[in-house]
Amino acid sequence: MAGFDHTLVAPPEVGDLVCPRRISAGGTAYHEVGEGEALLLIHGVGMRLEAWAPQIAELAKTHRVIAVDMPGHGESAGLPVGSTIVDFVAWLGGFLDDMQLARVNIAGHSMGAMISGGAVATFPERIARIAYLNGVHRRDPDAKAAVLARAASIAATGVDKEGPLLRWFGSDPQSDRARQLTRRWLEQVNPEGYAVAYSAFAAGDDVFYNCWAKVVCPAMFLTGDGDPNSTPEMAETMAAQARNGWARIIVGHRHMVNLTAPGIVNDMMREWLATEERPK
User: Fold this and answer.
1) CB 215 within 8 A of CB 243
2) How far is the C-alpha of 157 from the C-alpha of 172, rounded, in Å?
3) Contact at 8 Å (CB) between 79 and 91?
4) Cα dihedral 202, 206, 207, 210 sign
5) By the 8 A CB rule, do 273 and 39 touch?
6) Which ranges carry the AB hydrolase-1 domain (predicted)?
7) Active-site annotation holder among 110, 199, 229, 244
8) Are 98 and 24 in contact (CB under 8 A)?
9) Can you give 117-184 as a three-state secondary structure string?
10) Is 110 a catalytic residue?
11) What sections of 71-129 are H helices per DSSP?
12) How many domains does the chain have?
């Protein structure tokens, strides 16, 4: 694409899920495919843009899909130690500028959802629709203490690979492939980038929580009924607050629903992308 400096870099090896990347002028690695309205995908802490592979393959049939590596993940440059969720939202705004994207549909998973929520609160005129997948909303005191403790322990213990797998997946054999890929991505993540992002994620759930009453664009809040951290109650609370919001709960799945139930998630995302904005 003309007008900005992008460098093609070799993709990482992650089994059969490999997406070639370009690097934006600001240092963000991204994969772009398809034509039409822009759809931006942001993964969660410890992951990389390949976590969206089932959605990229399907939604690129109708949209210009741009999946990014979050700062400090995959091939993207990191943010400084001490960065907050506000800094991650500013990163996203800079990426939109680099890509000359005046207005996008945005879907975020987990921390990517938190960043997406910050984006629609900070520059709503640039967000046409928002999909908030397995995102948190004002954790209760016990959950807040647990996630802050995990963030504080990273400096001493490094990237936790077992805890997320236990929280994010059930024991069903259907999740084995997604579980294996997730473990590999956690093993590949840059420890410093992970620590910076996780700290921002742990402290960020109550920064933009009150934005939803002002959001007029179509807003889908999706999670699994077994997700212990991004709960159905959270999704339903946010959906009730948003002017054009709705919740979708996928039964029998946990945190990584876009990988463990890709067909269902793709159908729900197609429905979301086809929804017209009707301000209330």
Assistant:
1) yes
2) 29
3) yes
4) positive
5) yes
6) 39-266
7) 110
8) yes
9) HHHHHHCHHHEEEEEEECCCCCCCHHHHHHHHHHHHHHHHHCCCCHHHHHHHCCCCHHHHHHHHHHHH
10) yes
11) 85-98, 111-122
12) 1
Q: Which entry of 116, 134, 230, 258 is annotated as an active-site residue?
A: 134
User: Catalytic residue among 31, 73, 253, 255, which?
Assistant: 255
pLDDT at 156: 85
Give the whole-angstrom CA distance, residue 254 versus residue 174. 12
Residue 14 lies in a domain: yes
Chain center to CA of 65: 14
Check residue 280 and give its pLDDT: 53
User: What is the DSSP pairing of strand 7-9 with strand 21-23?
Assistant: antiparallel
How high is the pLDDT of residue 17? Answer: 62
Residues in the chain: 280
- The bridge status of strand 64-68 relative to strand 38-42 is parallel
Q: How many CB atoms lie within 10 A of CB 14?
A: 17
Residue with the two structure tokens 């992970």: 194
**Burial label, 264 (beta-carbon count in 10 A; 0-12, 13-18, 19+):** middle
Average the pLDDT over 73-100 and give the result: 97
Domain annotation covers residue 279: no
What CA–CA distance (Å, rounded) separates 113 from 40? Answer: 11
**Cα–Cα dist 55/258, whole Å:** 8
For the entire predicted model, the pTM comes to: 0.92
What integer pLDDT is reported at residue 3 of this predicted model? Answer: 30
Please provide residue 17's backbone torsions phi and psi, each rounded to the nearest 5 degrees.
-105, 95
Is residue 255 annotated as a catalytic residue, yes or no?
Answer: yes
Q: What CATH number did the domain enclosing 96 receive?
A: 3.40.50.1820
* Residue 156 resides in a domain: yes
Q: How far apart are CA 264 and CA 235, in angstroms?
A: 17
State which residues form the domain around 141.
Answer: 7-273
pLDDT in tens, 56-72: 999 999 999 999 999 99
Residue 150 domain-assigned (yes or no): yes
